[in-house]
Design brief:
Elements (H helix, E strand, L loop, with lengths): L1 E5 L9 H14 L4 E6 L11 E4 L7 H15 L7 E4 L14 E5 L13 H15 L4 E4 L2 H10 L7 E3 L14 H4 L7 E5 L9 H9 L3 H6 L1 E5 L6 H10 L6 E5 L3 H9 L3 E4 L8 H8 L4 E4 L2 H7 L4 E3 L4 H13 L1 H15 L4 H9 L10
Helix pairs in contact: 1-14, 6-12, 10-13, 12-13
Length: 369
């Protein structure tokens, strides 16, 4: 099949969407399809080896990128005779029309769940413009049942047009030991959270407040390690950490290379995912795969993915977050059960299955993972 795959936006490879794009492109390439990628000017080198249609350098500007994809890109692909156009981040970029059937992948509609997430212009784009064009797609893929429900409720997309196709487990191709030791972190000495630092959506401040509420003996033994690049509102998160009574135990590790993530996961004592809203939550199944007992918010897809394999809590209640962390750190039976159940849960999610469903090789009906 001749597939045109839109890899915009790529976020310099530092977001969940970029992980998704990398995994889907890599897996589709092994299935014998003829791929042409639509890429940002800054991502051309990253995708070297693939046929590419690149956006102009001016489209590094988000607004220009949105407009270009909607109204200019369709004319550039008109003569390509592609079998299908895959819009891999249709909740961020879409085309106004296409000469071939469009499969639009929807990650999340967090704007309806997290107050003040975006400015008025982007809110208009996400609530008015994108829904209109996504409704015109041949098929819409939701990466979780939670996203499917949001697409029906908020974007008024016909239920029969939407298929649920869970993401896969993302594992780096190369591993490097020594990351935890380089940070001065002994094995089993820290609570881990992996997410871009974005306030209020990723809920770091409530996690910091929860960490403050741990018993003194736990604070003395365990640090809170936050991995992720700064995003919007990161200054508020850093300020909350500096002002925290437990500031000495909080480590912001910044962006960590993929090859170091195995070491970061495997040396943690437990994993906590307090995000207010997630379309899927890749790092939750990554932590489960590496054998970490996990606790996660009881909302959106995190409940869908974690229920029965992780402790769940109200992300708006720091005391509830603290209680879940305390249980994982002090109750050996619960910790072992979460470890085993989580590992089994993570094994259900594969990129092979996801890519087959995107390309049509998995059958017409895309089933839940």
């Amino acid at each position: 099949m001749k597939l045109l795959v839109c890899c915009v936006p790529y976020d310099s490879g530092r977001s969940g969407v970029s992980v998704y794009i990398d995994q889907v492109v890599r897996t589709l390439a092994t299935h014998g399809h003829e791929l042409t990628l639509i890429t940002e000017h800054s991502a051309r080198e990253h995708f070297a080896g693939y046929a590419q249609i690149s956006l102009p350098a001016s489209c590094e500007n988000a607004v220009l990128s949105m407009l270009y994809c909607l109204f200019v890109l369709p004319w550039r692909i008109k003569r390509g005779r592609y079998d299908r156009l895959l819009m891999l981040a249709a909740t961020r970029r879409m085309v106004a029309w296409s000469p071939c059937p469009v499969l639009a992948v929807a990650h999340d509609l967090a704007i309806y769940h997290v107050r003040d997430k975006y400015d008025p212009l982007r809110s208009f784009y996400l609530k008015v413009c994108l829904p209109y064009f996504v409704r015109r797609a041949w098929r819409v893929i939701a990466i979780s049942r939670a996203t499917r429900e949001d697409l029906i409720r908020h974007w008024r997309i016909a239920a029969e047009k939407i298929r649920v196709n869970h993401n896969g487990l993302s594992l780096p191709q190369e591993h490097r030991d020594g990351w935890a030791a380089a940070q001065g972190l002994a094995s089993g000495s820290y609570i881990l959270y992996v997410s871009r630092i974005e306030h209020p959506g990723k809920n770091h401040i409530n996690l910091i407040r929860a960490y403050e509420q741990l018993a003194p003996e736990l604070l003395a033994r365990y640090r809170l390690v936050i991995i992720g690049a700064d995003w919007s509102g990161a200054d508020l998160v850093h300020a909350a950490a500096r002002q925290s009574l437990a500031a000495a135990g909080i480590l912001f590790a910044g962006y960590v290379a993929a090859e170091d993530m195995q070491d970061a996961y495997r040396h943690a004592a437990c994993y906590v995912f307090p995000s207010r809203f997630e379309g899927f939550g890749l790092s939750l199944i990554e932590a489960m795969h590496y054998g970490l007992p996990c606790a996660a918010a009881n909302t959106s897809s995190l409940k869908e993915i974690g229920e029965g394999a992780a402790l769940l809590f109200d992300p708006e209640d720091p005391a509830a977050i603290a209680a879940a962390i305390t249980t994982l750190l002090t109750d050996k039976a619960v910790r072992e059960r979460c470890r085993q159940d989580g590992f089994a849960r993570a094994a259900r999610f594969t990129w092979e299955k996801h890519a087959r469903n995107l390309s049509g090789d998995g059958g017409d009906i895309v089933a839940d993972a």
